[in-house]
């Protein structure tokens, strides 16, 4: 048993990332049933919708699962209260100050993990008393660090500074990548993009198919002035690039972004005008499969790669 499997009471040190519009109860329960930690992504859910997802997830698995909560949402208090009321035991927080909720959650018997993209924020999270940290490199999909620190450099830098369990994220979709980050000092990994292209992901089928067809260089980090996000290059992305040529203000960028772009793209399948968030590793994802098959593949490849290490 390693520190992560112990902390979460799971079989393999793998976390399925709680991604907006992708990580409903079906994905989370399938992940947990496969021996890893499934997460429901609360970022795209109204409080009562989240409650239903938690209740359905409980019926679909008797294994541990958690909820990922981006802290920049307005109804954060309602979300946290529902998590406590529904007796969720693991919470991943992101996009905010870990000091705000960590102790409150831990006092209610909840394990708290915070997602960071830099050494500075890893230290702040440790100081806030979190139980573990996800350090996410700039290869990751969705909202991301401004500093563009890659996973390969971020993990050993964070490892050097912290004592608590460390989960590597960003650009990890295979057993070999999992082994690589663990050799660099991670206790386990968080995987997002690979599970977007799973049968149980709540993403629109059209978006899943775009992910499978994404090649190296088809994604880019943009909108750094508002909140950096990695997107697949589509019509909407090209409009952002055109706007940048005019040296836009933050207000103009926000106006172009508008509301519900991510929902339109990933959940409703609007491939032209929607926001299509995915990691650089999409270039290595070639098919949509059930979660159980994806986990089996990752674990088998991890074990094989571990054996091969001896011959290097």
CATH topology of the largest domain: TIM Barrel
CATH class identity of the largest domain: Alpha Beta
How much strand content do the residues show?
A: 15-25%
> What is the helical fraction, as a range of percent?
40-55%
Largest sheet: 8 strands, parallel
List the secondary-structure elements in sequence, H or E: HEHEHEHEHEHEEHEHEHHEEHHHH
Note poorly predicted spans.
none
| Mean pLDDT across residues | 96
Sheet/helix structural class = alpha/beta
CATH architecture of the largest domain: Alpha-Beta Barrel
Provide the domain count: 2
Q: Find the count of extended strands (DSSP E, 2+ residues).
A: 11
Number of helices: 14
Query: Could you give the distance between the termini?
Result: 26 Å
Global morphology: globular
CATH homology-level superfamily of the largest domain: Aldolase class I
* Rg over C-alpha atoms, rounded to the nearest angstrom: 18 Å
How is the largest sheet built, in terms of strand order? 1-9-8-6-5-4-3-2
Keywords:
single chain; TIM Barrel; alpha/beta; 42% helix
Structure description:
The chain has 312 residues and is an alpha/beta fold. It has two domains: 3-202 and 284-309, Aldolase class I (TIM Barrel, Alpha-Beta Barrel), CATH 3.20.20.70; 213-281, no CATH class. It has 14 helices and eleven strands. The chain has helices spanning 3-8, 25-33, 47-60, 76-85, 102-106, 119-127, 151-161, 175-183, 193-196, 205-213, 235-244, 250-257, 261-267, 291-309; strands at 14-16, 38-41, 65-70, 90-94, 111-116, 132-136, 142-143, 166-169, 188-191, 219-222, 229-232. Strands 1-9-8-6-5-4-3-2 form an eight-stranded parallel β-sheet. α2 runs parallel beside α3 and α3 (47-60) packs parallel to α4 (76-85). The longest helix has 19 residues, at 291-309. The chain starts with a helix and ends with a helix. The relative contact order is 0.13. The model has no long low-confidence stretch (mean pLDDT 96).
């Amino acid at each position: 048993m390693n520190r992560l499997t112990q902390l979460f009471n799971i079989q393999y040190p793998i976390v399925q990332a709680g991604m907006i519009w992708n990580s409903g109860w079906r994905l989370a329960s399938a992940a947990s049933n496969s021996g890893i930690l499934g997460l429901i992504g609360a970022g795209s859910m109204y409080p009562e919708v989240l409650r239903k997802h938690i209740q359905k997830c409980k019926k679909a698995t008797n294994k541990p699962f958690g909820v990922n909560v981006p802290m920049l949402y307005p109804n954060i208090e309602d979300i946290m209260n529902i998590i406590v009321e529904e007796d969720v035991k693991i919470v991943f927080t992101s996009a905010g100050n870990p000091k705000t909720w960590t102790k409150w959650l831990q006092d209610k018997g909840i394990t708290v993990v915070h997602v960071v993209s830099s050494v500075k924020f890893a230290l702040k999270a440790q100081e806030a008393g979190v139980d573990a940290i996800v350090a996410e490199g700039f290869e990751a999909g969705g909202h991301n660090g401004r500093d563009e620190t890659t996973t390969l450099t971020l993990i050993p830098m964070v490892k050097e500074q912290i004592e608590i369990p460390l989960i590597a994220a960003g650009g990890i979709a295979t057993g070999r990548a999992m082994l690589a980050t663990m050799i660099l000092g991670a206790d386990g990994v968080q995987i997002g993009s690979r599970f977007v292209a799973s049968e149980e992901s709540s993403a629109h089928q059209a978006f899943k198919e775009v992910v499978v067809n994404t090649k190296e260089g088809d994604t880019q980090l943009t909108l750094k002035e508002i909140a950096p996000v990695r997107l697949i290059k589509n019509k909407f992305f090209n409009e952002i690039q055109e706007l940048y040529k005019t040296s836009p203000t933050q207000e103009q960028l926000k106006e172009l972004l508008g509301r519900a772009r991510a929902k339109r793209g990933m959940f409703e399948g609007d491939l032209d005008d929607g926001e299509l968030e995915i990691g650089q590793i999409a270039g290595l994802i070639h098919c949509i499969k059930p979660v159980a098959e994806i986990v089996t593949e990752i674990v088998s490849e991890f074990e094989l790669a571990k054996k091969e290490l001896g011959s290097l």
